[in-house]
Structure formats: C-alpha cells, structure tokens
Design a protein that fits this description.
It is built from five helices and no strands. The protein is mainly α. It is rod-shaped.
Length: about 170
C-alpha cells in the first residue's frame, strides 16, 4: 500500500505514445484572442476601472527622474528628433560638433517636462469626460425608466376604462 504522501502515478507520464495522443493541438493567436474576449465582459477600451481624476498624479507633483533598467521603448534615442535636426543643420554649417551641449540638454529636459505635464492634463481631461458621459447615461436610463413606468400606468388606466390600447409598432 502506498504511503499517503506519495502521489499516484499517471500512466500517461510513463508511456510517451499515450501522452502524445492526449495533448491538444496548438492554438493560434486568433484562438487566444477569442478566448480572452469571451472571458471578459467587454472588449478592452483603453481605460482602467475605478480610476477617478482625483486619484491621478497631481499636476504639480514632481516629475520622476528617468532611470530605466533597459532602454525605454518610447525614448530609445539620446537626443529627440527635433534636436537631432537642429544639430544636423548646425553641423552642416560647422557651428558645433559632437554630443549635445548643456543648452541642448536643458532644452531636451524642459521639453520632456512639458510633455509630462501635458500628458497629465490630457489623462485628467479624458477621465472627466468619461465621467460626464457615464453620468449622462445614468440620467438617460432614469428618464427612460420613468417614462416607461408612466406609459404602463396610463395604459392600465385606459384599459380599466374600457379603451383599447394600440400595440406599439414592431421595431
């Protein structure tokens, strides 16, 4: 008799010919997308749940320094394209050469700071707009329920007085 701590052996693990017949065929990427979407209630829409404009990073919060373990996918270049073109023009006229100077680095840093703040404002505006749409939808649903209940009440009143109520046209 095996001990209680010894797991029972699966016969398919002992013979490879049995194991190969029980393995399902590999799935395609389209199958994976369908299975993920079938588990979700809705398709991804680019917003996160339960995030409010108040829970975002404040506009006046300090900007974090860039410290990546690997190169960032959004900023792989040391010098952004705008500054690269300026350097190319100045090199054509042989004004300066080599690495970006301190003025260029300050301008790059200022541009990144400006972009970070613009992104924060944009995220906040997007969440506020989404909240407005959700509030409007809730108001419309409430109004719809109100008018539906009123119509049912008035139909019952008409029927109680012996008036035939016409059926709504098919939609």
């Amino acid at each position: 008799m095996p001990s209680p701590n010894t797991p029972s052996l699966d016969p398919s693990s002992l013979r490879p010919e049995i194991r190969s017949s029980t393995i399902p065929p590999p799935s395609t990427p389209a199958d994976n997308v369908d299975s993920v979407l079938s588990r979700r209630k809705t398709a991804p829409n680019g917003t996160r749940k339960n995030i409010t404009p108040e829970s975002l990073v404040p506009y006046d919060a300090p900007i974090q320094p860039r410290k990546y373990v690997t190169p960032s996918s959004t900023s792989r270049k040391e010098v952004p394209a705008v500054f690269q073109r300026k350097r190319a023009r100045s090199q054509a006229f042989e004004d300066e050469e080599g690495e970006p100077g301190p003025n260029d680095l300050d301008a790059i840093e200022a541009k990144r700071r400006q972009n970070t703040l613009a992104a924060r404002r944009s995220r906040k505006r997007k969440l506020e707009y989404q909240r407005e749409l959700e509030d409007a939808l809730d108001r419309e649903k409430g109004e719809k329920e109100f008018w539906k209940a009123r119509a049912v009440t008035l139909e019952a009143l008409l029927q109680s007085h012996g008036v035939d109520v016409p059926l709504p046209p098919p939609s």
